[in-house]
UniProtKB/TrEMBL annotation:
It comes from Scyliorhinus torazame. PANTHER family: LIPOLYSIS-STIMULATED LIPOPROTEIN RECEPTOR, TRANSMEMBRANE AND IMMUNOGLOBULIN DOMAIN-CONTAINING PROTEIN. This is Ig-like domain-containing protein. Residues 1-19 form the signal peptide. Residues 35-159 form the Ig-like domain. Keywords: Signal. One of its GO terms (biological process) is tricellular tight junction assembly. SMART domains: IG (SM00409). One of its GO terms (cellular component) is plasma membrane. The keyword Transmembrane helix does not apply. InterPro entries: Ig-like_dom, Ig-like_dom_sf, Ig-like_domain-LISCH7, Ig-like_fold, Ig_sub.
Amino acid sequence: MLGRSLLAAIAALAGLSAAIQVRVPEPWRVAILFQPVVLKCNYDTSATQPPTIIWKYKSFCRDRILDAFSPSSTDNQINDQLQQADPNYNPYVNCPDNSRTVRTVASKMGNAVTLGSDYQGRKVTIINDADLSMEQTAWGDGGVYYCSVAAFQDPSGITEGYVELLVL
């Protein structure tokens, strides 16, 4: 895999503008309560300036644990039908933000990492280029984590990916 700086140099020499490509290599993670977890987020960009990284938390649309204990419920049967009609439909992720908790976990500009207000005092940070590291998971950490990458010089492409985290 070409490094971002080499990719940017090649694109600049060729006069090309490549789009951001965000990839989440592990879209589903399980963590044990109070244990560390790293949510990985990879990206490629032709931008020469470091992009801004933002990790957001969104609560699950439905309770995964409750669904696991009542697989024959009417809601589960409806969700199964929706998934058959649209394989990209995810009943735990696809719902309006106003029907669930949404908060910023952390953002990174250059080397500076800023934590959202709900994460102040916790050992949470962005490591490597864009990976979210939590030294101790807590009960409220289970949900969907969105990694967004924004570069002024490279505004198009796939700028976001998500990881579902289940804390046991």
